[in-house]
Amino acid sequence: MNNTLKKEETKKEQSVTNKATGNAVALGALLKKGGPSLQERTTEDFAIPYLNIISDTSPQIDKEDSQYIPNAEAGMIFNTVTDKAYSEVTVLPIYYRRRYVEWAEKGEGPGAPINIYTPSEFEQMKREGKVVRGDDNKERIVGGDTYIENTAEHYVIVLEPDGMWTKAIIKMKATQLKKSRQWNSVMSNQRLVDGNEVYQPKDFAKSYTLKTVREKNDKGKWFGWVVIEGQWITDIDNSNISKIYEDAMIFEKQIHSGEVDAKPQKDNQSSSEGDNKSDSDLPF
């Protein structure tokens, strides 16, 4: 091939490349100008995912199960909506609440909770003698066949490696309630200094990294949460951090107002924190 033909082919290739680049830029501008789709979706039409721990018996690591996640391993964390698995996640804690959730025994009744009680409602039930602790260490409604789980719910924003962010919930029960209390203690003691002023910022002014660790007692073994204090949001290297903070403010208000209210998740609907046992089977 002579030099003239080579030059002509190079020009053609460059022309195709320039055209493709131009089309991409033009399309990008149109996508940005168009904005989000016109829909009648409200917060009730979205599912806030849970971040669950994959146990040794979770369907996410069973290749023959429809819930199998490629490359997932026991001890990893996975998103129940996207099925994305993580070795660790970095989050901004947006909102915390504790609920007492009444469930039917496994294999009985609907998958949805029977009732959800606030801490004050649950304490009132105990004072009235409507709740007793059974031999299995579970809180039970007197005269019924249901049990109540003390559940800590941490609403978070997950900081994805690509700079994007997603909303999720982390639930902690039974053996993990201690981890939740410790995390809350750390957040409640956060302080920033501005000149002569010392103030307490929002919980999501600081990030936290969550991992898992193998735990065990005389009833079995399981993976539990490890919460590691991270960076102040002003030190996070993410070009979207201002937008993320704005979204965090909105998310907090939506949860507090009740506009966002995720339904509690029963362990056997997706994944448990125990090995052959859910964390509800483990002692408090």
Written overview of the protein:
The structure is a single chain. The chain has 284 residues and is α+β, with helices and mostly antiparallel strands. It has a domain at 43-97 and 157-281. The chain contains four helices and 13 strands. The chain has helices at 3-34, 119-127, 177-188, 241-257; strands at residues 51-53, 77-79, 85-86, 89-104, 115-117, 131-133, 139-141, 146-159, 165-173, 192-194, 197-199, 206-217, 220-232. The strands form three sheets. Strands 4, 5, 6, 7, 8, 9, 12 and 13 form an eight-stranded antiparallel sheet that branches. Strands 1-2-3 form a three-stranded antiparallel sheet, with no helix packed on it. It has a two-stranded antiparallel ribbon with strand order 10-11. Strand 6 (131-133) and strand 7 (139-141) form a beta hairpin. 28% of the residues are buried.
Q: Specify the structural class.
A: alpha+beta
Mean pLDDT: 84
Describe the main β-sheet briefly.
8 strands, antiparallel
- Distance from N terminus to C terminus (CA atoms, Å) equals 79 Å
> How much helicity do the residues have?
10-25%
Poorly predicted runs: 268-284
Strand proportion, as a percent range, falls in: 25-35%
Number-wise, the strands total 13
Specify the number of helices: 4
Give, in order, the helices and strands: HEEEEEHEEEEHEEEEH
What does the radius of gyration come to? Answer: 24 Å
